[in-house]
């Protein structure tokens, strides 16, 4: 036998490596390192959620379950979403998934295939590109525009640039707002412009609104496609329990779409995960039904975190960023530092702080670093002190 390794389809072989993982591997396990490189906070899942899952596990909810999610969870999601978006959103719109990532994967599979193009405003979370490549589609990055890199600057969507990127092969637009890593939070006008474009060309919108509650202007949530869409629009919504309820390791989220797609989604769940463990879904119900004050605490934590890192890094005089409008990341550049991969390594060695290099987030992101500020104030104050120490002496 001469084959050293089995042959691999291009869709799998071309799936890009995550640029965050390289830095993570470099710094992993260092004593005292403050990890601000991944998209999660430091809070463990609250006990009322974990207890509900434990009770269901002990109570024998260990069998194969509904592909679409247990009816109680779909009802709880429907109640939560109806409250949040102030319009009736019935349980037949919602499908439990293995985290938000699985919801993205199912949406992409339904919308696109080999040779199709997917528009992605970028800098963007790398998994959008990865999910497109994995189904054989071509990600087309459309640069967001930064009005100024001073504190009063904003990331904005270049609506004309997005329209110009549409070709006969375009099938979908991925819209992540509030965005990881930039904090770009689409205005209602931007959402309307995207929707108009999608309607004109018959495109799908894959709306990742998982950070929708993390906004800092006092409003209850970010503008959403729910505010501007008609029932028959082609929109998938990606959601997750990971961030609001501190459940990143649970791998539970949901996909929302028009109920007419129910059988298709059910089949794709059957042939991928075959459903989310029922006992985990019981924890998710507790999160939705009893978790509102916890979510408020998470938002307050992010708000305080944002103040600490923005004030502390601005004081170095070397760091530039627009103040993020949403999500929980600071995306900043450092004067005179163009190689942020090398800089991220150096900050591990010299500051013992883990940040994600911009190289992980696509074209136009190379000069930036991403810092997750969803963490206790003391850690962030210490991280900023250490970062400032290194950045002001080099
Ligand atoms: C924009 C965005 N969408 C989706 C996800 C995935 O969430 P989950 O952990 O539920 O798969 C993340 C995680 O960082 C994210 O930043």
Give the key terms.
single chain; 394 residues; alpha/beta; Aspartate Aminotransferase, domain 1; Aspartate Aminotransferase, domain 2; 2 domains; 7-stranded mixed β-sheet; 4-stranded antiparallel β-sheet; globular; binds pyridoxal-5'-phosphate
How is the secondary structure organized here?
Elements: H1 10-13, H2 19-27, E1 34-35, H3 47-58, H4 71-85, E2 94-97, H5 99-111, E3 117-122, H6 126-134, E4 138-143, E5 145-146, E6 155-156, H7 159-164, E7 170-176, H8 188-201, E8 204-208, E9 235-240, E10 253-256, H9 262-270, H10 278-290, H11 292-314, E11 319-320, E12 329-334, H12 340-351, E13 353-354, E14 356-357, E15 368-372, H13 377-393
Parallel strand pairs: 1-13, 3-4, 3-7, 7-8, 8-9
Antiparallel strand pairs: 2-10, 5-6, 9-10, 11-12, 12-15, 14-15
Helix pairs in contact: 3-10, 4-10, 5-6, 11-13
